[in-house]
Predict the 3D structure of the following.
Amino acid sequence: MLVEDDIINQEMIRESVGGTYDLIVAETGEEALLIISEQYETLSIVLLDLNLPGIKGVEVLKKIRSDPAYSRLPVIVMTSDSEAEVECFTLGAVDFIPKPYPASKIILARILRTVEFFENRDILSFTERDHLTGLYNKEFFYRYAEQFDLHHKDTPMDAIVFDINHFHTINDRFGKKHGDEILKNIAKKMLAVVNESRGIACRSDADRFMLYCPHCEDYGAILNAISVPLGEGETHVRLRMGVYSDVDKTLDIERRFDRAKIAADGVKDNLTNPIGIYDNSMRETEMLADRLINDFPTAIREKQFVVFYQPKFNVHGDKPVLSSAEALVRWKHPKLGMVSPGVFIPLFEKNGLIQELDRYVWCEAAAQIHDWKERLNVSLPVSVNVSRIDLYDPDLIDRFLDIVRNNGLSVEELLLEITESAYTEKSELIVEKVKKLRELGFKIEMDDFGSGYSSLSMLSYMPIDVLKLDMQFIRSAFGERMDTRLIDAMIRLADSFGIPTIAEGVETAEQVLVLKRIGCYIIQGYYFSRPLPADEFEKFLKVK
Ligand code: C2E
Ligand code: CA
Ligand code: CA
């Protein structure tokens, strides 16, 4: 912020710092103090002229320095009065720029040095910026965006999100260091974009960037502007972009970017169009999502969630033999009818409600196993789904032990399905936890194998008992052109590690035959049965 009433001086400073900083000008000391009180968080430095109308510069400096809340804000004093220098230093100015002004390069260098010094000195600045790219982090970005709105009330704005497609594979292929370089390059280009459009940018998560900028029409141009090469002689990193255009400023800032994210997710894996624009149909999805989240506590309380069971059959011998079942949750919503987990699970995974739901399902499933043992005298292992977030729960292991104990089960009766993608992030932590579970006797099925980024080599160190091939994977093997070579290789590799495989989503007799021939003997899918309510499922137990 420049505090200066002289227009020519204002222009000179603008000239010096314009390409590097956003300049806010206050013409009087009063105005300066007001701006500081409102925008303290976003100010890097104050350039203070001493000779102001109204309260004098020295008074402004005293006021700033006497408020500990502003201790992080450096002030450089600018005056032609060399006598004032000492007084200003004692009052806490960090530097002094004489008038008439030195060359604009010198001014900028002094400002940069001062800002850098203050930022390094102050621990607070660590939480403002993302270390790798130097862009703002998400929290700070949101706060800054709110400030931005305050001062640009009538400017229509766009909220934009960028995601890198398959960033994991980039890391896998070129190494993490190269991945980091790509992120830095994108950040650099984003800075250039915001300098031009007067917006602000941040890196919000690993491979996600956000942009808040005055409304524009040509989103393709922005996407091009931040496009970077994948590696030497390679094509460009594929980014997808979600735009919430001309935002509704009555919505929370987070909400606006949620909408941009929804739009970005809409073009995930869309090879022809990488730009998604938030529209009314997405609004309906969003409203449904809100409603489901709202209704969740009641649904748990009233037991609207019902657990269905789908059998897994062992087809090794002549006759298929029931080997276990998978517990799959459904929501019997009083108004919306039966809601599929495909709708609410991803939603609850995002906001953490999944933990409560999963625990509910685990308890229900355990109680069901117990009931079948008691009433029908059959002990059928049932697998439950364990979400990625569950694995971060420090009490997870005790919870499972309690559930098993409370229902009089042995640990082998409650099988745990952990999705492959849970292993890819923070994998050491996850591997340790899963190892412990196995040491206690729990059997682990790795779910959706082949859907994500894990390499086959993972199998050599992953603590798992069974591999569940991803359904999509089976779909493509038995697609228009039947090509089972990949499945074949996977099954054999798993076999060489002594790990049996389960195929799910199996719908035809032909598929069963081929899988059996390849060496996959546990089969789950509509061919045998859809997931059924517990009472209907009992028909499989009675013939067992
Ligand atoms: P998943 O764990 O991969 O479950 C298999 C899904 O495939 C189930 O869908 C099942 O109904 C469906 N399916 C089974 N056989 C066939 C078939 O032959 N053909 C086709 N087209 N589909 C088949 P569902 O029940 O809709 O569940 C979808 C996903 O929701 C599950 O995928 C799982 O990721 C999640 N989910 C379901 N229940 C729970 C739960 O209690 N906790 C958690 N965390 N996730 C759950
Ligand atoms: Ca599953
Ligand atoms: Ca699965």
About this structure: Residues 122-126 have pLDDT under 50 and may be disordered. The pocket of calcium ion (ligand 3) is lined by residues 447-448, 468, 504 (CB under 6 Å).
